[in-house]
Amino acid sequence: MPRRVHRQPEPVGRPRARGCLKQSHGQEGEVAMGRWWRRRKAAQGDAGSGEAARGPSGGGRGQGPEGEGDEVWRPAGGHIVITEVTEGSPEEEITRIEVSPEEWHTMRARAAMAQLGAEHPDALAAVRELARVLASTPGRAEQAVTFYQHLARSQWNVLGPRHQETLLTSAELADVLHTTGQLQLAESAWRDTFRKQADTLGRDHLDTLRSAAGLAAVLEDLGRAPEAEPLQRDVLERRTRLLGPDHRDVLTAANSHASSLLKCGRHKESERALRGLVPRLEQRYGRDHERTASARANLGAVLVRLDRHAEAETELRAVIRSFEATVGAQDEATFTARNNLAAVLHAMERYKDAARVLREVLAGRVALNGEDHPTTVSTRDNLANVLIDVGRRAEAAELLERCVRDYRRIYGPGHPRQRAAEEKLAWLRDGAG
Asked: Where are the transmembrane segments (predicted)?
């Protein structure tokens, strides 16, 4: 009797049809190690306060577009089901083969483009889902950028540059550019998307507010917190008016604005905001939830800047335990909290402990984001500062040389971070101290 064998993809779950990738639930402020620098400047009669706190860690790790629920979007894979069909008998499953989310969505996108054409709406939707999966897969975000760029061009031609779907893709592309550390391109993409959404949807539309928050986050990572803070405040005020004070997006915006205040050096204001926010998050989500831990991490960063070191160390160690239990030890949020713990240890003159923590953070960020990502570069800079106090000045100088090159590449010539690294490097080469 004839026999036919079928190989049929079978979905395990269906990703959310709408909503951008959400990289984090807030923006943890990251503190730079500048104690020795403040001390040197004071000795020279300079009353400056040293380096400002670093921007939020990790691309993506900024405010970016948010999902529509409390949880982060997770990609789903599928199965290849092999069945036997015999005349006169019911179809019988022989076996099924697990298919990863990336493989599953690649098959869907290829099939849709082959059957429907590359610019058919269903084919474009399948390409978007593949791009989302790649963006959420470690080491594949650069490939996601390529798919998003293709998708944006196709939608521009088919739907027009101001269509809501085109703008949704532009927002997701901007978010992935931020995640991959392409900050200047991310700023341009966010700014263009925000402007078009404000014109077509209005300033109060939730998509417009997400893009405003995304633009603010990348401005902070570019070291332009004073530009970002008014945007974050506006997002918070509009969301509060539209959604009510207890909506999850309002709580997220409150955390982001408090982080922005921190990066502007408005530490007391930031502390007041976070002291009011953390209990609300604990009541809604619990103490160890990602969103709560994010706000607690920001509070720890504020305490570092206020020189309340013992309190900061206690808070940050608790935050690290929370992040390790929820997102894992190798997540960017965990690395940010550990960086800030190193800042506390450095301020308490526990230099070797601080250097050990930063070496671990640097190794983790290299593995997660690559050698050239902005968060990796800032960690290298922080480690150099600590190594100076440890007495390993040759190693510190080597790290700073690389930071100078990387800051020029990331931010363009003459950025304050580049100039600060150059000044420290010159001081080391002059044999000071």
From this structure: none
CA 164 → CA 113, 147, 207, distances in Å?
22, 18, 9
Are 298 and 258 in contact, with CB atoms under 8 Å apart?
yes
Mean per-residue pLDDT over the chain, rounded: 84
**pLDDT single digits (tens) 267-293:** 999 999 999 999 999 999 999 999 999
Strand partners, 98: 79
**How many C-beta neighbours within 10 Å does residue 41 have?**
16
3-state secondary structure the chain: CCEEEEEEEEECCCCCCCCCCCCCCCCCCECCCCHHHHHHHHHCCCCCCCCCCECCCCCCCCCCCCCCCCCCCCCCCEEEEEEEEECCCCCEEEEEEEECHHHHHHHHHHHHHHHHCCCCHHHHHHHHHHHHHHHCCCCCHHHHHHHHHHHHHHHHHHCCCCCHHHHHHHHHHHHHHHHCCCHHHHHHHHHHHHHHHHHHCCCCCHHHHHHHHHHHHHHHHCCCHHHHHHHHHHHHHHHHHHHCCCCHHHHHHHHHHHHHHHHCCCHHHHHHHHHHHHHHHHHHHCCCCHHHHHHHHHHHHHHHHCCCHHHHHHHHHHHHHHHHHHCCCCCHHHHHHHHHHHHHHHHCCCHHHHHHHHHHHHHHHHHHHCCCCHHHHHHHHHHHHHHHHHCCHHHHHHHHHHHHHHHHHHHCCCCHHHHHHHHHHHHHHCCCC
Q: Give the tens place of pLDDT for each residue, 293-337.
A: 999 999 999 999 999 999 999 999 999 999 999 999 999 999 999
End-to-end CA distance of the chain: 90
- Residue with tokens 């944006």, as numbered in its chain: 152
**Crossing angle for the helix pair 374-390 and 351-369, to the nearest 10 degrees:** 160
Phi then psi dihedrals of residue 52, to 5 deg: -75, 165
- From CA 129, how far away is CA 375, in angstroms rounded? 27
Distance separating alpha carbons of residues 171 and 290, to the nearest angstrom: 23
Whole-model pTM: value is: 0.79
Q: Give dist(CA 236, CA 249) in Å, integer.
A: 9
Is the Cβ–Cβ distance between 54 and 383 less than 8 Å? no
The residues pairing with 81 across neighbouring beta strands, listed in sequence order, are 8, 96
Q: What is the CA radius of gyration of the chain?
A: 24
